[in-house]
Amino acid sequence: MRRSPLPVFLLAASALLMASCRGVDYDIAEVASPDYTGLEDDHDDGHGDQDHDVLEGPGSEEEAAGDLHLHETGVRNHGTVWFFNQPWAASFIWVKIVRDSVVLLALACVVQVVSRPRRLRRHDP
Amino acid sequence: MEDRPLDVSELTKTYRRSFGMKSHHAVDSVSFRVAPGEILGFLGPNGAGKTTTIKCILGLLRPTSGSASLWGLRPADPRVRARIGYVPENPDYEDSFTPMEFLRLFASMRGLDAGDAGLRRLLARVGLQGWESSRIRGFSKGMRQRLSLALALQSAPDLLIMDEPTGGLDPIARKEFRDIMLEERARGAAIFLSSHLLSEVETVCDRAVILSRGRKVREGALSDLLANEDRHRIVHLPPGGSSEDRIEETVDSSGLQDRIDAIRQSGGRILEVRPAFRSLEEVFLSAMGGDRG
Amino acid sequence: MRTTLAFAGMTLRSLLRRRTIYGILIVILLALSGIGQVPSFGVEGESTFIVDFGLFGLEIGAMLLAIGLASNIYPRDREQRTAMPLLAVPLSRGQYLGGRFLGAALVQAAALLLSVLGLMAILAIHGYAVPGDLVPAAFLLVVEGWFLLAVVFFFSFWTSPPLNAPLTLLLFIVSQMSVLQFVSLVPTAPGLMRTLRLILPHMDVFRIKDPIAHDFAVPDVYFLLAAFYGLAYTAFMLSVALAVFRTRDLK
C-alpha cells in the first residue's frame, strides 16, 4: 500500500518553520529593542534605584515624598516592565505566535497520520 | 464471494513479565473460522484464553502475532463495526442512564433510525419490558446482560460475538437467550459463543472449538466431536417381541459384528446400529485430561 | 462526526448527572464573592483588585474544572468496564476521545462563562463599570480551559488520577514562567532548559488580566491570535493523547 506523502511534507514544513524558533522567542525582556522596553536612559537627572524603594517605616514619608517621582500614565518605563513585557503588548512577537500555531497544527496532523492503525490487506484464506 | 465473517489465523497474545520471569502466552497460535448462519461454540476452562481471544478479535487488545479478520478487514475498520454485535462478560454501563436512553444513544452512534416503538419491541424481545425508563443503577446482573443483548441485536448484526452471555441467568432466561440465538442463526447471522455452560453449547452450537492453556485442543462439528467411534449403539427386538419390547445396548466397536450376529442367530431383529454419542462434558474433560502436563 | 457528536452528548449528560461540576462551580462562585468583599476592607483601586484577582481566580478555576471533569473519565471507564461495550463496537478510539473531550469541553465552557457572568455581577453590585474586554477575555479563558482539558486527557491515558492533578498543576505553573525564570530552575543545564521551554506551552499568551484590570485596551486581533494558539496547542495535545490511547490494551 502506497504511503501518503502528507506526513513527510507536514514534518518537513514544521521543521523549516521551527528552524526559525528561538528559545527566547517569548521572553520579551531578552528580544525586545531598548526603545520598546523604555529602558533607555530616561532619567537624566541620574536618580537611582533608591528613589524608587518602598517607603520604610514612619518618619520616612516626608523625606521620601520630596524624592518620589511619577511617570506619565500608561508609559513604558523601568517601573512598568512587568506590565508591558507580556505578549499582548509586544506586537513584534505576534507573528511568532501565528508561526507556532501553524507548526502545532502541522505536528498534530503528522502525529495523527503516523499513529493511525494500518488497514488490513485482503488476503486469501 | 465475500470473506468469512470471522477468520482467526495463528492468533497469539503474549504478556511479557518483568525481572527475568517467563512470558505468559495467554493465546497461543489459535486458528478457527466462523461461517454465516453458523453458531460456533468456544469452550475452555477459566484462564484458557477465551476472553483474550475475543478482545483481540474486537481490537481491544493488540495480538502479539497472527491476525483476526472480519470479512477480510481488520477489527477497527468502521465497515466491520457496523456489522457486529457484542455481548460482553459481566457488562456494565453508565448507571445514571435508562435502557431507552442507551438504545437511543447507540442507535444515534451507529446511524440507525431509532423510533421508540422499535426500541421498546427490542427491549421486550430480551425480556426488559416494563424497565425501559428505569435507571440501570438498580439493575441486577441478569438485567444488565439482557440490556447487553438488546444493544448487540439493535443493528441486526451479521456477526454476534457473545462472551458468557448467560452466566448467572436463571434457566428460563437461559432458554430465552438460546431461542434468540437460534432466531438469529435462522436469519443468517454468524454467532461466536464463548461459554462455560456445556449443555447450552451442546443445544445450540453447530461446531465447537475447545481451548486449553491458550491452545486449541479440539475443533469440529458437534456431531463429530460427540460421536464415540469406540462404541456403538444397537437397537433390537427380542425374538417374537413387539416395538414395546425394544432393547438398546452399547457395545465396543471391536465386538459389534459379533453381537449383531449373536442377536440374529437368537432370532432377534436389528432395528438400528449407530455410533454411540458421548456428552460434551465427556469430550471436554477428555480434552482437558489430554492436555495436562 | 455524527458518532462523535452523539457520544459527546452522552458525555455531557453523564457529567451533569455526576454532580462533580456543581461542586467546583460553587467553589469558584464562592471565591469570586469573597474577592468582591475585599473592597469593604479599605483596599484602594477596588475595581482593579476585583478584576485582577477575579480573572486570576477564574484561570485557577479553569484548571480545577479540567482536572475535576477529565482526570477520572477514562480510568473510571476502564475500571468499571463501561469502556468495553463502547470501544468494542460503536466507537473507535478517536471517536471515544473526541466525544469525551467535546462533552467535557462544553460543560467546562458553560461553567467558565457562568463564572465570568458572576464576576460581572459582582462588579455591577459594587457599582463599578464592567470592562468591555471582559467579554473576549471570557472566550479566551474558555480556550485556555480547553487546552488544560486536553492536557488532563493526555495524562489520563498513562497515569492515575492522583498523579494527573499534580502533573497538570506543574505544567500550568512552569508554562507561566519566562525563559529566564525557567532556566534558573536548573542553571547548570541552560541549553536543555531553553529547549524544554521552547517545547512547553507558552501560557503567558493567555495572560490578559493585567491590561483589563488596569483599563488598557487589548487589540482585538490579539484575542484572535491567542485563541488560535490555544486551539492549535489543544489539537496537538489531543492528537498526542490519541496516539498514546491507541497503543493501550484494554485488558
Describe the structure in brief:
The complex is a heterotrimer of chains A (125), B (293) and C (251). With 293 residues, chain B is of the alpha/beta class. In chain B, 33% of the residues lie in helices and 29% in strands.
Would you mind describing this structure in some detail?
- The complex is a heterotrimer of chains A (125), B (293) and C (251).
- Chain A is built from 6 helices and no strands.
- With 125 residues, chain A is mostly helical.
- The two termini of chain A are 20 Å apart.
- By secondary structure, chain B is α/β, with parallel strands linked by helices.
- In chain B, α3 (99-110) packs across α4 (116-125).
- The two termini of chain B are 43 Å apart.
- The model of chain B has no long low-confidence stretch (mean pLDDT 88).
- Chain C has 12 helices and no strands.
- The longest helix of chain C is centred in the middle third of the chain and has 33 residues, at 93-125.
- Classes of the chains: A mainly alpha (125), B alpha/beta (293), C mainly alpha (251).
Brief descriptors of the model:
heterotrimer; A: 125 residues; 43% helix; rod-shaped; C: 251 residues; mainly alpha; 76% helix
What assembly state would you assign to the polypeptide chains in this entry? heterotrimer
Q: Specify the biggest β-sheet of chain B.
A: 6 strands, mixed
Shape of chain B: globular
Order of helices and strands of chain B: EEEHEHEHHHEHEHEEHEEHEH
Sequence-ordered SSE layout with sheet pairings:
The complex is a heterotrimer of chains A (125), B (293) and C (251).
Chain A: H1 6-18, H2 28-31, H3 34-37, H4 61-67, H5 81-84, H6 94-115
Helix pairs in contact in A: 1-6
Chain B: E1 6-15, E2 24-34, E3 39-43, H1 50-58, E4 65-69, H2 78-81, E5 84-87, H3 99-110, H4 116-125, H5 141-153, E6 159-163, H6 171-187, E7 190-194, H7 198-204, E8 207-212, E9 215-221, H8 222-226, E10 227-237, E11 247-252, H9 256-265, E12 269-277, H10 280-290
Parallel strand pairs in B: 3-7, 3-8, 5-6, 6-7
Antiparallel strand pairs in B: 1-2, 1-4, 8-9, 10-11, 10-12
Helix pairs in contact in B: 3-4
Chain C: H1 2-18, H2 20-37, H3 46-70, H4 73-79, H5 83-88, H6 93-125, H7 134-156, H8 161-174, H9 179-183, H10 190-199, H11 209-213, H12 220-247
